[in-house]
Amino acid sequence: MKGPVLKLGQMASQWHDLLPEPVSRALGSLQNRVPALPYDHLQAHLRHVYQGELTDYFEFIDEQPFAAASLGQVHRARGLDGEALVLKIQYPGIADICAADLRQVRRLLPLGRLFRAPAAQLEGIYRELERTIHAELDYAAEMQRLIRFRDFFADWAGILLPRPIEPLCRPGVLVLTDVPGLPFAEVGQAPLEVRKRLANTLPAWLAAQAFDLGELHADPHPGNFAYTAAGELVVYDFGCVQSVQPVVLAAYVETFRALQSGSAEQLERGFQALGTRQPQSPPPWALYRNLTHLLKPLLQSGGLWDFADQPVHQEIQRLIPDALASLGSLQPASGTLLINRTLEGHYWSLTRLGVSVPVADLLEQQIDREGRA
Hints:
By secondary structure, the protein is an alpha+beta fold. It has helices at residues 3-12, 21-28, 39-50, 94-108, 119-137, 139-152, 192-213, 246-261, 264-274, 285-295, 312-317, 320-325, 337-353, 359-372, and strands spanning 58-61, 67-68, 72-79, 84-90, 159-160, 173-177, 182-183, 215-217, 225-227, 233-235, 241-243, 305-306, 356-357. The protein has 14 helices and 13 strands. The longest helix has 22 residues, at 192-213.
């Protein structure tokens, strides 16, 4: 399996506490250990891409990939100057596989009406998925996104990003410096001080992306992250980056304030601004009240959200009946699809870290700075 179907499996692999253990373990292998193509299949393709012998460009390419994902696989290499590199190689023919998968998704769209999702919203979600897949296939654009992130976070001591080697990059081949790290999926085994540093870096990094950079790294499964023994966060794969428009950011801030204050009426306004409410339908007040009751204590100024002792996802499961009863009022919003995916993914990242985080204070610092700007 490659392409969009595999990517959905990677997203589901984050839900490690919600799925049965055998299913969770199987999906966990999708994070960076997808069955890879043999190097023999790639070697001729690489010679064609580089229009010559690979030894003219690389001293060494490891034939065994150390990571494989939905659209490509990664091989360690060494440049002619001896620098340690990685080659992110797009699977030959993957664009056609993605196009075929997207056609199947398009055929399945009418099933969404069973969940009372409006046709226009379903079409918007399909377009967003299509746009995301096409963006991830464009390695030249990914290189430019990585350069922007590197420039913006150059002074952050706790963040490590690979550097693209532009003269060696080719269509469908991204060549980067090798930034080694320990698997983030196993970060729960790290010493407490390392986990504390990561737990403070991660939300601050996310907030800086949204409020200052205006772009969000939006592929948060653990295979795209690593950490060092010193507690630095290593970020890989900038194929999926979502722009954050000011009006959307303002709607999320209003939703945060509503949850913080416990106001169901303000939450309704926030959901309206986010586009997650079907027009001319009754507000799901019971769901709002339960959400604010659950999250208000965790979002107070000066408080800590203990990701070890407060498994919010288990409490959220109890709201499923309220959510199902509200299907006629709620709707999927294509403009927030990747942002919500990012927030959800890093909730699981913080759950893995299992420490207390001043979530509200970190957010309020950014909101206050934004208000003064």
